[in-house]
Amino acid sequence: MDTLELIRTFREVAQRGSFSAAARTLDLSRPNVSKYVAELETRVGVRLLNRTTRNVSLTDAGSLLLERSTPLMEMIDLTRAELQDRALVPSGRLRLTAPHGLAQTGLPGLLGEFMREYPAVTLSLHLDNRVTDMVDEGIDIALRVGRIGDDNLIVRKLQAVPFVVAASPGYWAERGLPGHPDDLAGHYALTYSVLGPNPEWRFEVGGEPLSVPVSSRMDASDAAPLVSVALQGLGMVWLPRLLLQPHIDSGALQPVLQDFSPRDVWLYAAYVQRRHNSAALKALLAFLETRWRNA
Asked: DSSP characters for 235-266?
């Protein structure tokens, strides 16, 4: 038995002045209570209780342990109660990570709605385009866009993410509208740096994947500067539609090749544990799933 439970048993005997009374309170046999107190005395190397056939009294060492252990046990009991509450009532802090591009979507507004609905929950949002190690960095939920391939993570699909090629109407007027992914040859592409010096954009044609090499006029590690340059009519981007939607709605960017978007790309929430997840984590997953499914 661990030392804390041995101390808890000792305290019951000390406070009640009886091994039998402590046994009834702890739902243990009297011999076990006696054995646990003896084991604690062995561990600390000093007698804690004076025993007679009729009563039990504290030694000087026992009085010291009873006094010093009181705030410790109170803290442990309080912490246990708070932890149990967090398993039932959404509360505490959740750490999230998401790519920078999602900050330009409805995500901040959704997180605000969630905090309004669950005022006892606080959030830490870390924006990073790299795939973080959730365990090492203490991340509760990672929001990601792409194919789902990490078997070590538990994944909640939030929304299918169509990719579109988009450029300004002026760019298309000058360079011509493509009707098929193969028509992108000769166009200026604005690409993610992660795609390397020979970028390819992925499509789906007749249910089969198709990778098309593109000529990169500019690359960047984040979508924001690529979109800004595309708005100036200097090239085309291939990005999740949800990142481009405001510019598409305003007419500043015109999407093409929408029928060729890969169908296995998702906005998803990844987390590590399935058992003993906090009520706050469960609530946020359910909230995001409901909101994005109905978006």
From this structure: -EEEEEHHHHHHHHHHTSSEEE-GGG--SS-E
